[in-house]
Amino acid sequence: MERSLQWSRPASLLLFAAAFLAAAAVASAGYNPDPLSVVNHFNRAVQRSTSPRRTLSEKKKKGKYSGPCLATNPIDRCWRCRKDWATDRQRLARCAKGFGRETTGGLGGKIYIVTDPSDDYKNPVPGTLRWGVVQLEPLWIIFARDMIINTTQEIVIQSNKTIDGRGAQVHLADGGSLTIQNQRNIIIHNLHIHDIKKTTGGDVAVSPNHFTPRTKADGDGVSLFNATNVWIDHLSMALCEDGMVDVVAASTAITISNCHLTNHNDVMLFGANDNTPEDKVIQVTVAFNHFGRGLVQRMPRCRYGFFHVVNNDYTHWLMYAIGGSSNPTIISQGNRYIAPPNMAAKQARLLLVIPH
Ligand SMILES: *[C@@H]1O[C@H](CO)[C@@H](O)[C@H](O)[C@H]1NC(C)=O
Ligand SMILES: *[C@@H]1O[C@H](CO)[C@@H](O)[C@H](O)[C@H]1NC(C)=O
Ligand SMILES: *[C@@H]1O[C@H](CO)[C@@H](O)[C@H](O)[C@H]1NC(C)=O
């Protein structure tokens, strides 16, 4: 099926896209005027990394695999089985693929170590996660040990940050979401995010020594609002009150990969309503995720933008998997869909026609 990897469009559409693109480029430098080139680039990387059949058959023979480290997709292959991952953490900044591939996060910044799981949302202290994410300089944020951070309110992240949970079991739980608003270049990697609740709002730290009143938040796991260049990788997420990952308000250049999602209703919302044509710039790659037990709908639910949903494993859904309205372009490739044993929910894809 080599040929199906290449996508092309009639020239008139390309011209239209180019004109639209020129206008949009001003608004957000992360927007890619040629999204099909990103799709093809991604697919070539997958092809290159899936050649050694030998490892796959070895894996099958042994039942539950207990051999040497395996990385089976091009993102993980970039860092995962390297002995020096803990001393060369910033290598991860070169590993993103898809629309978020230019995301470098805290590359070049200092390593900041979270040692304190407490969370004072108004006046965070050094050593806490919240203190690190509000700094203006690039930071590569890691964790000294396993911890549970009860997020008292939304954690508002400044540009040029990596939150790198590798080497520790870090849970963000029982409180506010991770929020990226009007910021760019952020990697969020290897965290458990669950039991996120609506928050009442209040004075929340947004930059060093500065807090601002924030209104109540819906209780998303990760909330992207006018965010550019964000890579979300290896998150384990469950039970958030609103969306798990919401990408709204003309956010673009996003990759969501290698996540394991369970027990949730509205999983991923890309574009929040049908009256925001500015969301045409939204471009998201959703790849190598496992949509698991107890998920209901929106994996993802798309509006306006361009979405590459590729090589995900859907083992459960209660209503539908992928949905769209307002002329989104959704390229769904190489996904595995196992429909639920409910005749009313056998459709993996749902086209939502919204009457005006
Ligand atoms: C977080 O909250 C839970 C339940 O509210 C509590 O059991 C736990 O001790 C809290 N953890 C921290 C680090 O404060
Ligand atoms: C992020 O880093 C880039 C590259 O170093 C820099 O140009 C930019 O100003 C930084 N952004 C912010 C908001 O600090
Ligand atoms: C979006 O965020 C950028 C900074 O990344 C800012 O310059 C711009 O004004 C924001 N756009 C809106 C509509 O708030």
From TrEMBL:
Q: Which GO terms describe its molecular function?
A: metal ion binding; pectate lyase activity
- What EC number(s) would the UniProt record show? 4.2.2.2
**Reactions this protein catalyses:** Eliminative cleavage of (1->4)-alpha-D-galacturonan to give oligosaccharides with 4-deoxy-alpha-D-galact-4-enuronosyl groups at their non-reducing ends
**Keyword DNA damage appears in the UniProt entry:** no
Which family is it part of? Answer: Belongs to the polysaccharide lyase 1 family.
Signal sequence, renumbered to the chain: 1-29
Output this protein's name. Answer: Pectate lyase
Q: Which cofactor does it need?
A: Ca(2+)
- Gene3D superfamilies noted in UniProt: Single-stranded right-handed beta-helix, Pectin lyase-like
Q: Which InterPro entries match?
A: AmbAllergen (IPR018082), Pec_lyase (IPR002022), Pec_lyase_N (IPR007524), Pectin_lyas_fold (IPR012334), Pectin_lyase_fold/virulence (IPR011050), PEL (IPR045032)
Biological or metabolic pathway of the protein: Glycan metabolism; pectin degradation; 2-dehydro-3-deoxy-D-gluconate from pectin: step 2/5
Q: How is the cofactor bound?
A: Binds 1 Ca(2+) ion. Required for its activity.
Claim: Lyase is one of the keywords in the record: yes
Keywords, sorted A to Z:
Calcium, Glycoprotein, Lyase, Metal-binding, Signal
Domain (Pectate lyase) spans 146-343
Q: What superkingdom heads the lineage?
A: Eukaryota
